Fold this sequence. Notes:
Layout: H1 26-38, E1 51-52, E2 55-56, H2 70-76, E3 87-91, H3 95-101, H4 106-126, E4 131-138, H5 139-144, H6 147-170, E5 174-178, H7 186-199, E6 206-213, H8 215-233, H9 242-247, E7 259-262, E8 281-284, H10 294-305
Parallel strand pairs: 3-4, 3-7, 4-6, 5-6, 7-8
Antiparallel strand pairs: 1-2
Amino acid sequence: MLLPGCGSCVVLRRTSDARGAKSPDPVRARANLASIASAPRAPALKAAKSHFEAIPLSSSGTLRIHELTDEERTVYATLKPERLPEHVAIIMDGNGRWAGQRSLKRFLGHQQGAKSVQLVTETASRIGLPWLTLYAFSLENNLRRPRAEVNFLMRLLKSYLESNLQRMMDNNVRIRYIGRTHDLPPEVQDKMAWAADATARNTGTTLTLALNYGGRSEMVDAFRGLAAEMKLKNLSPDRITEEDIHRHLYTAHMPDPDLLIRTSGEMRISNYLLWQIAYTEIFVTERYWPDFRGIHLLEAIADFQRRERRYGGLGEDCGEVEEDLDRIKFAAG
């Protein structure tokens, strides 16, 4: 993993020119994060028309296919633009093993992984991908990794935001966060608020970093929020619907992922977006995250487009459908 999330997503209004963005007042920045985290969750909205705090969140950026590399354009030419996924989520895995194979220190793997984040995000923005969500730092990473490594990742996160803000502005990228970010160091929260504020009115790809995030902890937080709402409104538990739970998830403002990519070849979900990926297509590559680039994102999308999504229904190659099932008799035994 690369980096650590809040009880809700962070979208702050920009109060000055983003290109000359200055670091926010620390007290005010943390107050903004805290107020958003404690605010009631907005009702879920249809994917292509999502809004949050009156700021449009659906991608309306201009396609910049000419900015792709020659190799990327070759793959993109095979895609059907009308069938691009709306939301791609990635489990960024393999930083440490990438470094180990090269007899390097683990921190160098994390640094190279941060470079991959920006390169993949820029490719996503050029093809008009509306939502890109990256599993940057899990709750388990925060609890179980050596403290020195966690501290380094916090510094890396701050450095990434500082050094890549201009590139996010140039690529019309908006940055947001999900997870329990209120447990991150105050100076990290300040820098996160600064970057979110500066990019809040960009209209291209929404890059969401899952920081200090866990799928189970997200559901715990959602159930707590729903329980408080039901108590306040004196509602019976038998009236709970899936939509009620969805409204209280960190991701209530975004569509569920169409495609989940996992690098490093591991065949597991690692407690990531457990509710949201019920019908998500999964693509696993042996490539470690530090070696993952925009062309590999496009190759995963090409694989996605070759699949038939059935959502529990029947596909084209499921055999002949018997119209009168009542006539069928079952053999004894």
